[in-house]
């Protein structure tokens, strides 16, 4: 059987990788890989999915995971990486609009799924481009150009992305990403002009959604009361109708297995992509799972609560070894982890600390915070004041870094608290001035960005906002239920033609 499989595998590789790749022995640098992937980044960049929040979020998450994968490939001494499955929504461009491939949707994009299990940057780049039906000819050009450089000149070259001459795009037929981005910038509208063009549409959608919004509130209140829940939330920006459907589904399960679902008393339920318990102890209900999976999860909650207690004890033990610094998990800034995944992360870090005791003075770091990160190899200090500590960090370097940055961390945390107070005051002032029904922001918008946005909003006269739901985001959009999304750094004045 194996003698038949091997030729098939070789044939598949020959289809994916062009002949010059099999004869090439040169490895790509990190900057060259980024440059070679420009057509891909242009086809999947989240900024071009402003009207499609779900697809935008999928691409954002997949790009983060891809970035980690590419970074790990470049780390010295790595042996192999775990297979990484990624999903991207790919926009239609001149490069991928050829016949004989999966058709694009009416919205101009299609879903592409692939699994990375490569061992070098060049094969990774080629695999990604081929999976998205994008040309790889420019990589051969890059490969040949570098081979033609004298060795000394190659050593002097700066490791930065190449900006191709206009003639390259003219003769190859590829689209110039710089020119397209400049065109997007020229077409960028101002806040007032965008509201003039979209205000009436948003009002109509909001009015049509009001009955469903009331139904959603009723369902949420009923289920929260029945199960004595702390809250019910959604990880994604699903529409009101979709959320009502999910609550109806949970309501039917309550009627069938009320006693089992009462195990969730005091918990927060989150509708998300997979079922389980989150790192912070929320009950995650996968929206693609059937009732059987949900029921099994609720049955297992007592064992999850036991694991949660062990996890909290582990956090306390780590804190004790590190001078009283608090171990926290920040949902907005960290990858979505299950309770089991987070416990495993803490356990690895704790065992490393036990083997390499760091002489911190007891309680000398009280009031400071840290998060564990499996994707980094060097510690860092976040602008919000918490330390980003790699699980595999060298203990000696960790001690030096924390001690030298401790005062700066305290200053950052103080500024964060002050900024949060200002942010809340400005949100209240904006809500009152514009008579907003709801005013909120996406988790990815920082307090500093929100403060800047609100200060500028309060200088404006915006009658279209009265009674509306306004979300501060990174793009303009009218959501399907009438919520207005505007970028935090919106432009004022006349639109640039």
Automatic annotation (TrEMBL):
<dbReference type="InterPro" id="IPR027986">
    <property type="entry name" value="TCAIM"/>
</dbReference>
<dbReference type="Pfam" id="PF14687">
    <property type="entry name" value="DUF4460"/>
</dbReference>
<protein>
    <submittedName>
        <fullName>T cell activation inhibitor, mitochondrial</fullName>
    </submittedName>
</protein>
<dbReference type="Pfam" id="PF14688">
    <property type="entry name" value="DUF4461"/>
</dbReference>
<feature type="domain" description="DUF4461">
    <location>
        <begin position="189"/>
        <end position="491"/>
    </location>
</feature>
<dbReference type="InterPro" id="IPR027989">
    <property type="entry name" value="DUF4461"/>
</dbReference>
<dbReference type="InterPro" id="IPR028031">
    <property type="entry name" value="DUF4460"/>
</dbReference>
<feature type="domain" description="DUF4460">
    <location>
        <begin position="25"/>
        <end position="134"/>
    </location>
</feature>
